[in-house]
Amino acid sequence: GKVEKKLNKIIEEEGAVYLVLIDPDEKNVEEIAEKVKDYADAIMIGGSIGVVNLDETTKKIKEITKLPTILFPGNVDGLTPYADAVFFMSLMNSTNPYWIVNAPTLGSLTIKKFGLEPIPMAYLCVEPAKRTAVGFVGGINEIPQRKPEIAAMYCLSAKYFGMRWAYLESGSGAEYPVSNEMIAISKRLSGINIIVGGGIRKPEIAYEKVLSGADAIVTGNLLEKNPNAVEEMYDAIKKAGREKLK
Ligand code: 1GP
């Protein structure tokens, strides 16, 4: 697991990683990749809807940067041999077994054939994800923000299943991100790597999330609208990471 090892090393040395999510059908790929290549620790490629240009987008990103590329598949068609790794994920709080275990099972053979590094991850959709694309597609039993212990129990369950990462997702473009309390208790109870994403638009918010216990911060929308925002975001995540390590 080269990519996972690399991320773990950065988390150990710098306190947190910054993952930039690029939509496979994003028109601005070159500009975003060019801007983020000196800041992001890895690039995630994926989304809940639309993967028409996945091969082309991944190839373009690889031409511009040597950063690891990790697929974030919204379904079995979210796989390409041009990436380095894939979050092998179960949407644990879906009401539909397809997203919990069938989609990953159907994708597993393709992952092996493509030689992608699988990184086992629990994907957990937290309020207000229901109002975003992933909530609509994934048929989620949304975790309420006011019940952080439910998210934490899922993270512990993920750990016992052997997963090394859990993603607390409030949905792309969410009005508000996952609470600090939910992140803290999830990290404390499970000890696995906690990824936080959805609705993170300000550096000071990312800073708080890392200090609360997030090991990885994901931003998507933010850089699609303004690729220059990457630098401030990176600085805040790394500053919080250093403070957390003290
Ligand atoms: C979506 O959490 C990610 O899966 C990113 O969300 O687009 O709101 O940054 P944003």
Quick recap:
By secondary structure, the chain is an alpha/beta fold. The protein contains 10 helices and 8 strands. The chain has one domain (2-245): Alpha-Beta Barrel (TIM Barrel).
Describe the structure.
The chain has 246 residues and is of the alpha/beta class. It has a single domain, classed as FMN-linked oxidoreductases (TIM Barrel). It has ten helices and eight strands. It has helices at 2-14, 29-36, 54-64, 97-114, 133-138, 148-160, 180-190, 203-212, 221-225, 230-245; strands spanning 17-22, 42-46, 69-72, 85-91, 117-125, 165-169, 193-197, 216-219. An eight-stranded parallel barrel has the order 1-2-3-4-5-6-7-8, surrounded by eight helices. Helix 8 (203-212) links the parallel strand 7 (193-197) and strand 8. Helix 6 (148-160) runs parallel beside helix 7. It is globular. The mean pLDDT is 97. It binds SN-glycerol-1-phosphate. SN-glycerol-1-phosphate is lined by residues 21, 169, 172-174, 197-200, 218-222.
Shape descriptor reads globular
- Main sheet record: 8 strands, parallel, barrel
State the order of secondary-structure elements, H for helix, E for strand: HEHEHEEHEHHEHEHEHH
Question: pLDDT average, as an integer?
Answer: 97
Low-confidence parts lasting 5 or more residues at pLDDT below 50? Answer: none
CATH superfamily: FMN-linked oxidoreductases
User: Can you count the helices?
Assistant: 10
Count of domain modules: 1
CATH hierarchy class name = Alpha Beta
Helicity, as a percent range: 40-55%
